[in-house]
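Below is a filled-in request sheet from our internal design queue. Each sheet records the structural input a requester submitted and the sequence that came back. We keep these sheets so that new team members can see what a complete request looks like end to end.

REQUESTER: design group, bay 2
PRIORITY: normal
MODE: inverse folding
CHAIN LENGTH: 126
BACKBONE (tokenized):
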């Protein structure tokens, strides 16, 4: 049997230090490298697309011109997922109208900057 004292976990060491009113080891086990703030902000702006408009914003801005004012009042482009533009439609007649003209709407959407990769139009009632 060894005579060396047993090592305790960091939590137990800190509890003993608190009991003795000594400063404990409260540091993290891993410390990150310091990053320049400007570079970090640039990375976050690109990651979350804060500095420039997203596809959805440009489509929403042009939506009345793409589908007509009457249809735009009852429909709303939500998001682009898996190369499909998902549109929320609140009226069955407008949904049918958009479905009948989906190819021409899709052609107009593809002409918008950055929207060339959109391959379909999905209509959801809601």
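RETURNED SEQUENCE:
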């Amino acid at each position: 049997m060894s005579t060396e004292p047993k090592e305790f976990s960091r939590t137990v060491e800190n509890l003993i230090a608190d009991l003795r009113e000594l400063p404990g080891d409260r540091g993290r086990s891993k410390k990150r490298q310091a990053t320049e703030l400007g570079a970090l902000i640039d990375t976050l702006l690109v990651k979350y697309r804060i500095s420039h408009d997203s596809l959805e914003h440009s489509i929403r801005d042009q939506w009345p011109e793409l589908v007509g004012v009457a249809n735009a009042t009852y429909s709303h482009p939500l998001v682009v997922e898996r190369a499909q533009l998902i549109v929320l439609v609140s009226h069955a007649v407008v949904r049918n109208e958009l479905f009948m003209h989906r190819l021409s709407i899709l052609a107009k959407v593809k002409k918008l900057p950055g929207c060339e990769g959109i391959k379909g139009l999905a209509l959801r009632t809601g």
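SHEET NOTES:
- Residues 55-125 form a domain with the GMP Synthetase; Chain A, domain 3 fold (CATH 3.30.300).
- The mean pLDDT is 86.
FILED BY: M.R.
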